[in-house]
Amino acid sequence: MNAASSSNAAPEGAQSGPACGPGAGPAARRLAARPAYPAPPQPVVQPLPRHAHAVGGLVPFSTVDWPGQLAAVVFISGCPWRCHYCHNTELQTRAARYDWREMRAFLETRKGLLDAVVFSGGEPLSEPRLPQMIRDVRRMGYRVGLHTAGIYPLRLADIMRHLDWVGLDIKADSQGYDDITGRRDSERPAQACLAQLLSAGRDFECRITWHPDWLDETRLLALARELARRGVRRFAVQGARRSPDSPPVRNLSAQAEALMRQWFQEFDYR
Ligand code: SF4
């Protein structure tokens, strides 16, 4: 499926006459027959009530937030941790910046073009209405993915059977966890979430945002080896960046990368 081109091109194609060039043919005619799609919802002007769904953002189309899936990403505002490298500080405080009914209506228009909806954050499990939001998008036929730092194991257990894929952040080894998160005893819930994912047999990826000043390569390799020993099959190292669009501050050595490629069924350095 190539919803990337479909979702972006359909409105223009539908209104600008017959398709031509490489796009012509049955697929192009199907695109041309589609109605124009509404623009993604905008942030609300008036603040929503405190009990409203804490939706903080939307990426209408992503190929990277769930490897192999074309997904919309719904960002939940609210996170009790304070990682010093957090790029989403505006999503740390609970706030409803988008109307979930508008977002649901928008997602209805993307049915058949996207495979999945990923809930990210902030920490999506901080939203008490997440189970209902998951039901909403499941009813539309979407697969459901979750990005989590593993802060709420009981909440994860409640929704586990409704998830198709999870991206679990591993912040550091035991020695470095609290230094990253700014919270005491923060490794414990994350390890509980990892244990649940391993025993539930869910498709999931562990990933770490890595900088050698926080965790040198020797410790990173020890952590990765332990994850592999416990049964983690997919692992990703995300090089720490000054901003989301800049290159990694420091590169992983070729030797470390080669070792992790051996240990995991899938390893990604990004
Ligand atoms: S867990 Fe994620 S959202 Fe929360 S502070 Fe850390 S990096 Fe930011």
From TrEMBL:
Native source organism of the sequence: Achromobacter agilis
EC class (word): lyase
Taxonomy, superkingdom: Bacteria
Biased composition (Low complexity): 17-27
Protein name stated in the entry: 7-carboxy-7-deazaguanine synthase
Pfam families recorded: Radical_SAM
Cofactor: [4Fe-4S] cluster
Gene3D superfamilies: Aldolase class I
UniProt-listed InterPro entries: Aldolase_TIM, NrdG2, Radical_SAM_PqqE_MftC-like, rSAM, rSAM_sf
Highest classification ranks of the organism: Bacteria, Pseudomonadati, Pseudomonadota, Betaproteobacteria, Burkholderiales
PROSITE patterns: RADICAL_SAM
Keywords: Iron, Iron-sulfur, Lyase, Metal-binding, S-adenosyl-L-methionine
Region (Disordered) location: 1-27
Protein EC: 4.3.99.3
Entry GO MF terms: iron-sulfur cluster binding; lyase activity; metal ion binding
Domain Radical SAM core: 66-270
